[in-house]
Design a protein that fits this description.
Length: 312
């Protein structure tokens, strides 16, 4: 999959671009609803013998449009989004920089510049897609703005258990630690990638060595607590337990939560290596223990529960 970063105005030459079927949207999470939009575009591209594309935006529009939002954490940071789209069979990814200039574009200018001038012949979106200044363009106006240069289709909302699948709903679930339910809406486990860095090495002294993961500040993490996780490393999958939190038994002044992962039945040095962590089930809240012995007793119980979780 080829990734093309675009700003307004872009300098991509129309004659150099293949005829393309594209899905458009922010697609944070690339959940089951998003996947239906994207798969519709991929299937249509195959039927027309064209390339498929996804057109998305970065950063999140709220960073530009809302003064109270300084930074957004993403269910799927851009790199994760790229990997997922590649697995979905997308040929090209256009990432449009969302800034004040873009937000001020009139709907017709947006369509001319980022759809027609990218040689998009068929466009697919969700039912609630909007574009242009103050979102004045939408699925009801797009045929007019297409000016006969491309066709358009929208995909209706996708529900699970009678409720719309949305990034907002997934964020709410993660804030409550309900990763299993969030995963069912995503259609895959929530994942985060990071480099193993040196920690205080206290885990070794209590019999549970951990890999401390340095993850992107853009990544949305679930509620603080202990989780059953899979660890992906060099094409191998390992079971383990992860503590996301402040380690209050030994530390009182930590400002940001850290991820410490104990990988079951693995003892090699991982410093400097990249791991992918898949969150599978919330086990318990983080606690402060009166002694290391009490903590070890709890960790032993956590391990039993998590091994049992993966067996079943």
């Amino acid at each position: 999959m080829q990734t093309i970063m675009l700003t307004y105005p872009h300098s991509v030459v129309l004659d150099e671009l293949p005829e393309t079927v594209a899905a458009i949207g922010f697609f944070d999470g690339v959940h089951k609803g998003h996947q239906k939009v994207i798969q519709t575009a991929v299937d249509e591209a195959k039927a027309r013998q064209m390339q498929s594309a996804v057109i998305t935006f970065h950063p999140h529009p709220s960073v530009v449009l809302r003064k109270d939002v300084q930074h957004v954490k993403y269910i799927t940071p851009l790199r994760e989004k790229q990997e997922i789209l590649k697995r979905l069979g997308v040929d090209r990814l256009y990432v449009i920089t969302f800034d004040k200039t873009l937000s001020a574009l009139e709907p017709q200018d947006f369509i001319d510049h980022f759809i027609i001038d990218l040689n998009i012949k068929h466009l697919v979106s969700g039912f609630d897609f909007s574009y242009g200044h103050k979102g004045r363009g939408n699925v009801h106006t797009i045929q007019e703005h297409a000016r006969g240069m491309f066709t358009f289709a929208s995909v209706g909302e996708v529900k699970m258990d009678g409720e719309k699948i949305s990034s907002t709903r997934i964020r709410e679930l993660l804030q409550n630690g309900w990763v299993s339910k969030a995963n069912s809406l995503l259609g895959r486990p929530l994942s985060v990638r990071g480099i193993v860095k040196e920690g205080d090495k206290r885990g070794r002294t209590i019999g549970y060595p951990t890999a401390n993961m340095d993850v992107s500040n853009d990544a949305l993490l679930p509620k603080v607590g202990v989780y059953a996780v899979n660890v992906l490393y060099k094409n191998e999958v390992y079971e383990g337990m992860a503590s996301l939190g402040y380690n209050p038994t030994f530390t009182e002044d930590r400002k940001e939560p850290i991820i410490e992962v104990n990988i079951f039945d693995y003892s090699n040095d991982l410093y400097g290596e990249e791991l992918i962590l898949e969150w599978h089930s919330f086990i318990r809240d983080e606690e402060k223990f009166d002694s290391a012995a009490e903590l070890v007793k709890q960790i032993e119980d956590d391990e039993r529960r998590i091994r049992d979780f993966f067996r079943h």
